[in-house]
Amino acid sequence: RLSVPASRLGVPQKPSPRMRGNAGRRRWQPKQQPAEVAAAAEAADTSNGADAAAGARGPDPAEAAASRCTAGSGPAGSAEDGPSPGHLGWAVSFGKNVYGQLGRPTASGSSGTVARIEGLAAAGPASAASCGFDHSALVAGGRLLLFGKNNRGQSGQPSSGQRGDKDRPDPAEDVLVPTPAAGLPSSCIVSSVACGGEHVVLLLEGGEVWALGDNSKGQCGLGAGSPRFSPAARRCERLGPMSAVSAGYRHSAALSEGRGSLYVWGAGNQGQLGLGGRRDSPEPQLLDVGAPVHACVLGRWHSLAATEKCVWAFGWGRFGVLGQGDMTDHRSPVRIEGLPGTSGGLHCIVSGAVHCGAVVGDERQPLVWGRGQLGRLGLGSEANALWPTPVPNISGVEQLAMGGDFSAVRLADGSWHVWGKGEEGQLGLGEVDRAKRLRPTPTQALQGARLVALGDCHGIALP
């Protein structure tokens, strides 16, 4: 289950005036979903919670991608600077911890308790975070720190007994505490990071893109003939200076510095690269949507890209995740009707595993669409939303984050609300149970957090 990044492709690392919209009162008017299509979508949404990936019956039901949060994959500049008003004074984590993805000294099943991530004092304050399927990343003092599951090198550590087989992963041990990634020169200063399903894409100061982890579909962008698994970070040589990066389950993207050119690579089996076919691409490919791209986010098998005038979607369309009013796949970008671009009041776009969101208008209203099972849309039911739909009674959103089966928002007053699946403690409500929250639920545990990155079943909050 995927996706943060945060974000989380990350949106541009420091929200530009373009992403804040223009002055003037703007209210987004929701589209009516065709009754027969909505009914068909709801009827199709019958699998139970354990498989947001398998329920889609997509190409790889066993795994899913990492979420991208609006601010979580960017640096501190993506939220307000300065100390936090609440009690949160350090990086914290919550949710599933089977593989050490919470950054605590011991791995455990799950934890609904929001607790401090250990071992960061020497590195300095964390400025960016991203969560993958079962691994996590932090940027602290310009260094990349990884922890969690490491079976494909996604936590940046080679195994103790290298087999030397580039086509098979080594049985590397999981990483329980934040640890510097192997292969990255000490002179490199990391500005942002995006965790995919089992890979990591990072952006350095100066615009270089590096990647590590699972490269079986070319998602590290290292070119034809490159190793299928790379626990050591390697530079994506075919990319020039970039301004933002993003990672989905097995595909990745980057935005060029200044020009707004969008490059995509990795798995293309569901059309998620937007190149018109289903082929994988081990090398970055330019995707032309007819205008400069201001932000891009990736989900499990789909992608979104925002321009000045509109938002484009492409890839796997099940559950209405492309916002087209149906469940059709699209191998090339299609416009999400009624959703404004960055000059028309769009503040950000976000993607989880199989649900998406945006914040629009002067009221900063959150809109959501895609799969509704387990309440991940926050609309009060488990029905799918085939069009962008307002979350009731929520406005003034400063950050919207989405994970595998859950979501979170930070409001202008600093309060946080969460909704969706809570079985692994990923809502941070201090409990681990099978309860799901169909509507936004306030939580005091994240008070003072500036930004949150959500993964498949866990999350990280930064002060």
Automatic annotation (TrEMBL):
SUPFAM superfamilies (alphabetical): RCC1/BLIP-II
Gene3D superfamilies: Regulator of chromosome condensation 1/beta-lactamase-inhibitor protein II (2.130.10.30)
Residue span, RCC1-like domain: 92-460
UniProt RCC repeat ranges: 142-206, 207-258, 260-309, 309-362, 364-413, 414-463
Extent of Low complexity compositional bias: 34-66, 153-162
Pfam families: WD40_RLD
Disordered as annotated region, ranges: 1-88, 149-175
PROSITE patterns: RCC1_3
Keywords attached to this entry: Repeat
The protein's name in its UniProt record: RCC1-like domain-containing protein
